[in-house]
Structures are given as C-alpha cells and as structure tokens.
Amino acid sequence: IALLLGMCAAQRHVQVQDGPLVRAEGYHITIWCNVSGYSGSTQQNFEWSIYLPSAPERQIQIVSTNDPDYPYAVFGGRVRNKEVYIERIDGDSALLHITNLQLGDTGG
After folding, report:
1. 88 phi and psi angles, rounded to 5 deg
2. Cα 70 to Cα 85: distance, rounded to the nearest angstrom
3. b/e map 25-52, b = 16+ CB within 10 Å
4. Do 106 and 2 meet the contact criterion of CB atoms below 8 Å apart?
5. Mean pLDDT of the 19-32 span
6. Which of 13, 70, 99, 101 is most open to solvent, judged by the fewest CB atoms within 10 Å of its CB?
7. CB 37 within 8 A of CB 12
8. Exposed / middle / buried, residue 100 (Cβ in 10 Å: 0-12, 13-18, 19+)
9. Which residues of 69-93 are buried (b: 16+ CB within 10 A; e: fewer)?
10. What is the chain written as a DSSP string?
C-alpha cells in the first residue's frame, strides 16, 4: 500500500515526513508532523486527511485532535476504536497512527 503524504492542516510552517510511504496491508504505521513558525498558543491542533487516487479533488478527513466529528464515515469507526489515532509528542508535534493499514488507506 502506498500512502502519499500531504500536509497537516495549518496556516504555519508544517513539516511531514517525506513520502511516498510504501507499507504492507495489516501493519501499524506512524507518520510524524511538526509545526513551527507560529505565534500564540504552544498547543497546536492537528488534522489528517487524504486524497484518493480515484478522486484526487475529494478530501477524505481521517482524524483530528480538535474535532471528534472530523472523520468521514469510512474512518469514523476506526477512530472510535483507536485503530487510527493521533499521539501528541509535544504541543507542536504529533504522530498519526494507523494500527491496521488497509488497502483503502491509499491516498495522497
């Protein structure tokens, strides 16, 4: 499964590990994100989404640190079951965890 990485949603300098990532279905993956160059609160919110190869104009929301209703239905159950979650490293860094990578997780 190839997971192409975009950016976390923010109006700041956002760094995400280089992609594409190629991982096998069923494995646990982590993707890091770091935010810098901002002022204000040191506690940043993170949102992850993908764009499907079959519909590159359509954003599929995965998970958010701020909005429990953020995920699209296809990810909602996995987020509630903690199969997909965000681990905060500190106020401006986080890891996206997908504990059981699925073929449908492929995106850009």
Report:
1. -75, 130
2. 12
3. eeeebebebbbeeeeeeeebebbbbbee
4. yes
5. 83
6. 13
7. yes
8. middle
9. ebbeeebbebbeeebbbbeeeeebb
10. -EE-----S-SSEEEE--S-EE--TT--EEEEEEEES--S-S----EEEEEETTEEEEEEEEEESS-TT-S-HHHHHHHHTTSEEEEEEETTEEEEEESS--GGG-B-
The predicted-structure confidence for 47-76, as pLDDT tens digits, reads as follows 999 888 888 898 999 999 999 999 898 899
Q: Which residues contact 46 (CB under 8 A, 6 or more apart)?
A: 8, 9, 33, 35, 64, 65, 66, 86, 94, 96
CB neighbours of residue 14 within 10 Å: 19
**Which of 25, 33, 29 has its CA nearest to residue 8?**
33
- Phi–psi pair at 54, nearest 5 degrees: -80, -15
